[in-house]
């Protein structure tokens, strides 16, 4: 049993991860939280104590760490005796944290694909640009590295695996749908790091259609859904991490991702993007100061974690899978509904952070128990989905399955 | 006769001023152009030669100058032997350039009110915050300083004076209307320095109504006009320089300023302003860089002078004056229509720069001739309007007067 966990990052998702690890510290042992700003880690530790989240007596400690520094990260893993590293920091640090894990033999997991701050939307499949180049290295060292173990990517990959294995003989298409029907009451805000959020939408939209990569522009293709709980929801075809692994691991001709956006979000995004304010390339002011516009936009927007107290409403994220079973066509929607206010009451974060953080902890628990301790680099759809979904149901993100008029809890 | 002119600034308005001075170098003698970036001045000089704008053989020279530096500005005035300084640089340099003029005895004129980079919309009347504090200093030195000698403020002040003197016994209201019905073909651009442009609209809207300052919010009060040439035009109540002198110098109970805006401009402005991106107060990025958002917005927007080549359409700016004459109520619209393409063909700038720059040159010519050499600080409405309007008619900005069905050139 792998013990002692190191959480990297101190944003809204890290807050959820810390609380959930604390709620399961019989599994995890010591909990360490590290980020560039130690104060933010200390606030998370204080919040864990305040909400009495620790299941039993145990260690929870804050650390200052520049996770771009492999040696410093290795040293902290060793000092803390951590055998599992949950990386929910900026996606810019994924590769350096992975290096530290390989060097120390600790298991690694993250919730979003690695990014280079200077590039947007590289060639498909994205995982081949950085992560998969290191598969052999992980296998050789016997190090477990689980990529994209949040909700999307993460839980939706497990839903896809489940559908292919248990619900269908052949799958024609998987449409992953992510709707946030919540309200934060601000003029405008992003639900996670604005820099990362906007980067998702400034590049090309790449999707997998008829076994080929297809390119669209953002907000070019709209589809309106009628979903459980959240009701009628407009969404737009969006490029997203999980398409880049599911398309390579599952025999499914069409895999698309749809993200829900309201008109107001699209208007603000369009204005900022059209003006060049979402660019990751520096501009020079009249006074000669070199500055990246996107970083200034991030600086003026609300800190996503500040939205949590007033956030109301629900999210609905799931996989709409179409195919055939026993010679008949079949359509199944496998999904979860989460509530912003309940998330805040439990762990002090809003629903978007909750849905990303809880699966990472579930995956870490399965590494600890050995069920997902793969000793190599894997994406979530390469692992058995049932233990993951069962555990998620117990720790806060129950799965439901809708087929025709039937809408049942997954069991 | 005052000779030799120094133009401060190298933007679109300075380009117009340089060409118009060159076209009248029999009046002006040597022409010097100075700005922070000497290269921009050299480009203007090259454009003057290219368009063969010099009326007769003469000097036109470019200089590098930090106009915030009084001593350097004095030295250049003395070296160039300039007796008239046309300040069309940033409104942040007005007071330092004025100091250099007072010290050297050169006449001063500008086209916009002085601003402190760190403040927006100070107490009314605005001219009392900086300019009018120096009236005695100018009078004592016998230095002519003409404030706000562009189109608005400037020509519209002369229209107001003319109306009060010649067209009415009593004036009830003056509505100054500024409509740009032109099109630059870009997603979004401002017609002059974005920093100055946006600053006009981020503060409170102050207008003079029933002999009192009245406060509104920007885009709160809309009025649609049906104007000569440009036709139906939506406009919004806007705070503007000229209200702050006309209200003090003319016996008119209500003086308002209306600027034309399309829905697209308002949407972009509202998004940027609501997010805090138009703030002149610095923010700090996650990386610790301190930066003024408005300066970054300026850096990503098109350089206003780059709009000129493709600009089409017309502007209409004028004073709608209501009052009584010989016991009867009367309503007169005194106005000018300018054409973007014609301006570009003549002087290489678009119409907004043209309407701001030509009046400054006309005012300078009247200083040179002695007609407007007031030997003290004045606003345009304190000077006789007819010589100014006559001269403007000859050098490119003819005035028209509309009353009922009659619409005649001013004579």
From TrEMBL, chains A, B:
Q: What taxonomic ancestry is recorded?
A: Bacteria, Pseudomonadati, Pseudomonadota, Alphaproteobacteria, Hyphomicrobiales
- One Pfam family matching this protein: Sacchrp_dh_NADP
Q: In this protein, which residues make up the domain named Saccharopine dehydrogenase-like C-terminal? A: 150-396
Gene3D superfamilies documented for this protein = Dihydrodipicolinate Reductase, domain 2, NAD(P)-binding Rossmann-like Domain
Q: What is this protein called?
A: Saccharopine dehydrogenase NADP-binding domain-containing protein
**Domain Saccharopine dehydrogenase NADP binding: residue ranges:** 5-146
Output the InterPro entries linked to this UniProt entry: NAD(P)-bd_dom_sf (IPR036291), Sacchrp_dh-like_C (IPR032095), Sacchrp_dh_NADP-bd (IPR005097)
* Top-level taxonomic group: Bacteria
């Amino acid at each position: 049993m792998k013990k002692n966990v190191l959480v990297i990052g101190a944003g809204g998702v890290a807050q959820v991860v810390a609380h959930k690890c604390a709620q399961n510290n019989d599994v995890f042992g010591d909990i360490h939280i590290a980020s560039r700003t130690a104060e933010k880690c200390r606030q998370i530790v204080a919040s864990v104590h305040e909400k009495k989240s620790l299941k039993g007596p145990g260690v929870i400690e804050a650390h200052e760490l520049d996770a771009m520094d492999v040696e410093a990260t290795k040293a902290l893993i060793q000092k803390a005796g951590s055998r599992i590293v949950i990386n929910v920091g900026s996606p810019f640090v994924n590769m350096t944290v992975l290096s530290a894990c390989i060097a120390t033999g600790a298991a690694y997991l993250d919730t979003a694909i690695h990014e280079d701050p200077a590039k947007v939307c590289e060639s498909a499949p994205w995982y081949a640009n950085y992560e998969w180049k290191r598969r052999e290295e992980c296998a050789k060292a016997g190090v477990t590295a689980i990529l994209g173990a949040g909700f999307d990517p993460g839980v939706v990959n497990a839903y896809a695996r489940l559908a292919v294995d248990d619900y269908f003989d052949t799958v024609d298409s998987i449409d992953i749908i992510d709707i946030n029907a919540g309200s934060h009451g601000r003029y405008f805000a992003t639900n996670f790091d604005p820099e990362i959020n906007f980067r998702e939408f400034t590049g090309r939209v790449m999707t997998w259609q008829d076994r080929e990569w297809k390119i669209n522009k953002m907000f070019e293709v709209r589809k309106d859904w009628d979903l459980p709980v959240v009701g009628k929801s407009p969404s737009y075809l969006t490029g997203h991490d999980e398409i880049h692994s599911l398309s390579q691991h599952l025999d499914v001709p069409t895999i698309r991702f749809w993200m829900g956006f309201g008109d107001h979000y699209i208007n603000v995004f369009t204005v900022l993007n059209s003006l060049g304010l979402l660019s990751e390339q520096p501009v020079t002011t009249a006074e000669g100061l070199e500055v990246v516009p996107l970083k200034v936009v991030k600086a003026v927007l609300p800190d996503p974690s500040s939205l949590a107290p007033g956030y109301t409403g629900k999210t609905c994220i799931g996989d709409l899978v179409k195919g055939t079973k026993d010679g008949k066509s079949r359509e199944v929607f496998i999904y979860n509904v989460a509530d912003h206010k309940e998330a805040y009451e439990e762990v002090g974060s809003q629903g978007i952070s909750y849905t990303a953080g809880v699966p990472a902890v579930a995956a870490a628990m399965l590494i600890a128990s050995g069920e997902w301790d793969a000793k190599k680099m894997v994406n979530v759809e390469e692992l058995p989905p049932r233990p993951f979904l069962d555990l998620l149901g117990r720790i806060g993100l129950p799965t439901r399955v809708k087929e025709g008029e039937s809408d049942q809890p997954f069991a």
